[in-house]
Amino acid sequence: MSRVNVYRIEPDGVVVPHAEIQNALAGAAWIWNTLSKAVGVPCDMFAYEPLWRLFGSDRLTLHQNIVLGFTFDAVWVRKGNVPGLVAALREFFREHGTGVVPTVMGIAAACEQAAAMDIRGVCFNQTSVCENPWRIRTNDDGETRPFQFDKDTRDRNGKEPWELFEGYGQALRRARTAPTSDA
């Protein structure tokens, strides 16, 4: 069964494993399907872009924006923002989690546990089916090392890491200043 991996970002910026939560399909994919229905944006298993484009918009509530952004590639959450992520995940599950495997609640608990430690933040791999984006290849032989903030600029997938709450603020500002189709 696939897993959601939660990683700690140590004070020196090195990313280390923290927790594995079983059933990744009840994580990001469940969030996307549930959120797309809740806001009336048709999506399917391989076409979530219409939903993803809503990140930072007023069409989503604050906790919906946080939960959606948490599922994106290369996202991380600063230690001081972890309580906001945990609250958003719990609120989303409270609203939509009836009859669902509580993967989201396991993620929230793992983040809360990590935040009680001396860390810089947390980051994620939403499904163990994919390679760990927080392991950087060191050579052509497949050897890897942990990603290190302040040293590495792109994860294994070539994406630049971004802090969820800072990214949400930027996305919200862009959405509020974007020209409307009525103009």
Task: Record the SSE blueprint.
Blueprint: E1 3-9, E2 15-22, H1 28-39, H2 49-52, H3 62-70, E3 75-78, H4 82-96, H5 103-115, E4 121-125, E5 135-137, E6 144-146, E7 162-163, H6 164-177
Parallel strand pairs: 3-7
Antiparallel strand pairs: 1-2, 1-4, 3-4, 5-6
Helix pairs in contact: 3-4, 3-6, 4-5
* Oligomeric state of the chains present here: single chain
Secondary-structure content class: alpha+beta
Q: Which residues sit in consecutive blocks of at least 5 with pLDDT less than 50?
A: none
Report the sheet-strand fraction.
15-25%
> What share of the residues lie within helices?
25-40%
N-end to C-end Cα span: 49 Å
Would you list the SSEs in sequence order as H and E? EEHHHEHHEEEEH
The structural domain count equals 1
Radius of gyration: 16 Å
Q: Look at the structure and give the mean pLDDT.
A: 88
